[in-house]
Amino acid sequence: MRRMGSRDLRRLTRRMGLNINELQGVEEVIIRLPDKEIVIKNPSVSVIEAKGGARIYNVAGEEEERPRGVSEEKEEEGGVEISEEDIQLVAMQAGVSPEEAERALREAGGDLARAIMLLSSRG
Questions:
Q1: Which of 65, 7, 69 is nearest to 40 (CA)?
Q2: Domains (ranges, CATH) in the chain?
Q3: How many CB atoms neighbour CB 22 within 10 A?
Q4: CB 95 within 8 A of CB 123
Q5: Can you tell me the distance from the alpha carbon of 30 to that of 36, in angstroms, rounded to the nearest whole number?
Q6: Quick check: 37 and 31 in contact, CB under 8 A?
Q7: What gap in Å lies between CA 60 and CA 40, rounded to an integer?
Q8: Which long-range contacts (CB under 8 A, 24 or more apart) does 82-89 make?
């Protein structure tokens, strides 16, 4: 059996009604599952377009898994997840707005008592 070169492959795909293009500048691809996210860093992404508008995405790159709901932004902040209940409690205890309470909670790494103390010492 003869090995198919890139030129032969292009001819065959055209005959089949397929168009293949590389997506440029893709930084990451995220696949979301119920319990985790699979992040493909520095991916190479090809788009195969068939007659009728169907598209197939081919992705290759460095794989990284992370728990669902932990965004890159949260990872950069140290992974602190702050609930609305915590924000409301700190705001009520310190007598500040929810926005100020959230900032203090982030500064305190999610520690409620420390956030309240920070806000109390400022006021």
A1: 65
A2: 6-69 (2.20.70.30), 80-122 (1.10.8.10)
A3: 10
A4: yes
A5: 10
A6: yes
A7: 8
A8: 82/106, 82/110, 86/110, 86/112
* Pair of tokens at residue 88: 């409301």
List, in sequence order, every beta strand (DSSP E) within the chain: 19-23, 28-32, 36-49, 55-67
pTM of this structure: 0.47
Give the three-state DSSP class for 33: coil
DSSP string for residues in 79-110: S----HHHHHHHHHHHT--HHHHHHHHHHTTT
Instruction: Please give the Cα distance from 46 to 68 (Å, whole number).
Output: 26
Q: 11-52 pLDDT, tens per residue? A: 888 888 888 889 999 999 999 988 888 999 999 999 988 888
Q: Express each pLDDT in 82-121 by its tens digit.
A: 888 899 999 999 999 999 999 999 888 889 999 999 998 8
